[in-house]
Amino acid sequence: MMGIAALSTLFHDSPRVPSESVGRAVVPMPDAPLGRFVDELEQAGHGLVLCMGKGGVGKTTVAAAIAVALAQRGHSVHLTTTDPAAHLAETLHGSVPGLRVSRIDPEQAIREYRDHVMATKGKNLDEHGRAALAEDLMSPCSDEVAVFRQFSKAVSESRREFVIVDTAPTGHTLLLLDATGSYHREISRQMGDSMSFVTPLMRLQDPALTRVILVTLAETTPVLEAQGLQDDLERAGIHPWGWVVNNSIAAAHPETPFLRARAANELEQIETVRACAERVAIIPLLASEPIGVHKLAALTAKADQPV
Fold it and tell me: What are the distances in angstroms from CA 284 to CA 148, 213, 224, 246, 300?
């Protein structure tokens, strides 16, 4: 909407957009509720669900909605986040029986890791040795290991219950996966072929345990970044389970000419997502933010199901 002529049409009822764009925008959107994802996830009775994607696409909302739905169906659910900017408590704005919420706080994880190493490896060192060890623990590598330890604990818990992880934006998530891969390679080197072992990376690569959901918007940059993330995951032997297109104007079936034109611009990106995803859930743009247990539950409810 650039220029006086274009801005003057914003609140007009009569269509002043190209008829071709309006025609494309009113193509019926397929029924793709997030509830179908929950139906499939529930069948295993436990597992790890990782919500990944670019910052600001709604990973926290999607993770919280899935966690609420599983908890309301009677499952034990642990909802956690590796994103320092995430606000799970504010998004939930309430509690659900069977659902516990936590946060992998990098600063706390680093502090606990340093204290643990100093209390174990540094216990029998002299003053000079302890000083050298403390200096080593100040490196960025130690910070990554500290967060990785907390993440590994959550991965292990998924063998007994549902663990839903709201991950940090793409770059931070790739660093975490890189640490996971480094740990796997080191364990493989030490163990060799003589002993059996299971590393967190092996659990992430297990499609029966881990389901990766890529969250995006129907816009060029988020879709491109999600495609790049999918490629990175595939190289690590992790196959994304499904995609969620969040805040879709087209899925909201708009009526005004301006929004119908905006919806038309989304269709190409939605088709791009369908072409590279096994499963797709589309969440329409809502009139108000889905904050609170009731609104989050509505995101996974069937059309004829009251919430």
Answer: 34, 17, 20, 7, 12
Question: Is residue 167 very low, low, confident or very high in pLDDT (cuts 50, 70, 90)?
Answer: confident
pTM for this predicted structure: 0.78
Q: How many residues does the chain have?
A: 307
Which helix (DSSP H) or strand (DSSP E) does residue 37 occupy?
Answer: helix 35-42
| Whole-number CA gyration radius for the chain | 23
DSSP secondary structure letter of residue 166:
E
The string of pLDDT tens digits covering residues 50-78 is 999 988 899 999 999 999 999 999 999 99
Contact 35, 260 (CB under 8 A): no
User: DSSP for 59-74?
Assistant: HHHHHHHHHHHHHHTT
pLDDT above 80 for 212 = yes
Q: Dump the DSSP string for 206-230.
A: -TTTEEEEEEEESSHHHHHHHHHHH
Which residues does residue 284 pair with via DSSP β-bridges, in sequence order?
A: 248
Nearest by Cα to 105 from 149, 63, 137: 149
